[in-house]
């Protein structure tokens, strides 16, 4: 019998939150699920492994940080399940939350569904939105209301549930995205094939946000987000527009002082991020230890 749900969580120096995440996820029950913890080049990999084994999770690790999309694909490959859930370890939820999302997806023919996401103070975060695009292409976010759902172009990547057959049909996450925009790319490709993406208005989760990758600075994250947006523009629009987008990002770093200081480090990071080829790096660095 095929297990219904496989839950993939990617960690990077996240052992300090993983135990609580898995404890809340299982909640003292013995659900018929498969949990896969994929560690991406953490300094605390030994602690993470012990915690994963404590809760009966499948554990796999990489010696280097290969990025969210690559690690999520590796986890999904180990989950021979009907449905896949991709959940960050800083999200607070029980497995019943994911089961509710599956039920809604089945009832409403949704191919990727997520909950409403609140921060630790109870403030609703942006758990749905329009597809990213260069500034000159920005349009209004499109959404439609259905009973218990908001159908839209994209949802928060911190907690997503989708059928395995759709994930495989899309070829999983594009591993050329190191961090950020990989879920937007997945949703865009899904929409182009007629798939529907939605946020449940009946299912809620909370998250502190950012705790799943400790040691990463705000400046680094901001620049890496710029890199991802430029790559998204090149993939889904054109090389010329990605060049224009990159030029604007370089100017933005120069004008927004505190946000990107030290500026030289941000410029260098942006340049190296644009120039690197994730596919070549992935082929060279796929060294996994089960």
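^ structure tokens above, recovered residues below v
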């Amino acid at each position: 019998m095929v297990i219904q749900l496989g839950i993939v969580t990617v960690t990077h120096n996240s052992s300090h939150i993983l135990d609580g995440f898995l404890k809340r996820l299982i909640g003292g029950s013995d659900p018929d699920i498969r949990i896969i913890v994929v560690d991406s080049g953490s300094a605390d990999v030994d602690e993470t492994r012990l915690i994963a084994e404590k809760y009966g999770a499948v554990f796999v690790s990489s010696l280097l940080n290969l990025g969210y999309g690559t690690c999520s694909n590796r986890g999904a490959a180990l989950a021979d399940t009907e449905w896949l859930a991709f959940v960050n370890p800083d999200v607070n939820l029980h497995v019943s939350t994911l089961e509710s999302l599956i039920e809604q997806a089945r009832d409403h023919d949704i191919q990727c569904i997520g909950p409403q996401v609140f921060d630790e103070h109870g403030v609703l975060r942006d758990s749905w939105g329009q597809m990213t695009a260069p500034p000159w292409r920005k349009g209004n976010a499109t959404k439609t209301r259905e009973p218990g759902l908001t159908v839209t172009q994209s949802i928060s990547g911190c907690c997503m549930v989708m059928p395995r057959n759709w994930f495989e049909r899309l070829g999983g996450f594009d591993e050329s995205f190191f961090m950020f925009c990989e879920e937007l790319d997945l949703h865009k490709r899904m929409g182009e094939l007629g798939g529907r993406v939605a946020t449940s208005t009946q299912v809620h989760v909370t998250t502190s946000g950012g705790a799943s990758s400790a040691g990463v600075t705000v400046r680094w994250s901001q620049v890496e987000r710029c890199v991802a947006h430029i790559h998204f523009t090149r993939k889904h629009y054109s090389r010329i527009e990605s060049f224009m987008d990159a030029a604007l990002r370089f100017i933005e770093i120069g004008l927004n002082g505190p946000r990107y200081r030290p500026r030289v480090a941000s410029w260098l990071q942006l340049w190296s991020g644009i120039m690197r080829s994730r596919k070549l790096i992935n082929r060279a660095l796929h060294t996994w230890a089960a």
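The radius of gyration is 19 Å.
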